[in-house]
Write a structure and sequence with these properties.
This protein has 104 residues and is α+β, with helices and mostly antiparallel strands. It is built from three helices and eight strands; from the N terminus they run E-E-H-H-E-E-E-E-E-H-E. Strands 3-8-4-5-6-7 form a six-stranded antiparallel beta sheet. The protein has a two-stranded antiparallel sheet with strand order 1-2.
Amino acid sequence: VFGGTTPKGFDCSGYLQYVFQKQGISIPRTADEQYKLGLRTKSTKELVPGDLVFFSTYDYGPSHVGIYLGDGNFINASSSRGVAIDNLYGGYWGACYIGARRVM
């Protein structure tokens, strides 16, 4: 749900904000602001579980975000499937990937 920040309906950045808030960590509300956090991960080979992974989808720059889980998978809130696990390297997401940030 675009603009969603609760379990009744999340958008991608609202989901991340909710997950981090449950751990007592405050992060910005939008994907483009979350992209400014932490340290940049230079290569997908450097990704570790917990890294934030970013995609350029409907707008230029970071417009979608998820949490890397390992083994090429990440969790995100999608408009078509709700909170789901997807593969970073496959199909749509691989073509949209623009980088990652390590915040912890």
